[in-house]
Amino acid sequence: MKNITIIYWSGTGNTQQMAVAVAEGAKEKGMEVTLKEVANASVQDVLKADAVALGCPSMGCEVLEEAEMEPFVEALEKEDLKGKPMALFGSFDWGDGQWMRDWTDRMEKLGVKLVAEGLTVQNTPDENGIASCKELGSKLADG
Ligand SMILES: Cc1cc2nc3c(=O)[nH]c(=O)nc-3n(C[C@H](O)[C@H](O)[C@H](O)COP(=O)(O)O)c2cc1C
Fold it and tell me: Which of 38, 63, 64, 93 to mutate to test the pocket of ligand 1 (most atoms within 8 A of CB)?
């Protein structure tokens, strides 16, 4: 069975709801899913997973959350992640998604295999947002 690891940071729960829905989408495809807050995750979790989803809202001024997620992503940038199936997702509010474009560029530079465009949802995911998250989990399962 393939293992999918989902690692996220969420301050007010919106990205967490997205993470749970991504997990459901992958589980529906029969995957073994590990869901972790970034504070409890390690680079090894990413290295050993068959596929990975990373979630973080837009924070600061269109950047990743700086205390936990940014250092985690910086640590990933020191690893060989070429070809690793990956999906990015996160919630935002007033911006235009620049944080996700920047994050996507960084991951693409590592040669990961992004299975879809970074999924962004404004504030709390509604029914459509949840469905998109499940679909993302399903795409990740397909690799
Ligand atoms: C300190 C702070 C900075 C934020 N900066 C941005 C931003 O630059 N662009 C944006 O679109 N939303 C920004 N937001 C809004 C959050 O991305 C939005 O509330 C999101 O739904 C939070 O997700 P969470 O519930 O997973 O923490 C910011 C929120 C906070 C608290």
Answer: 93
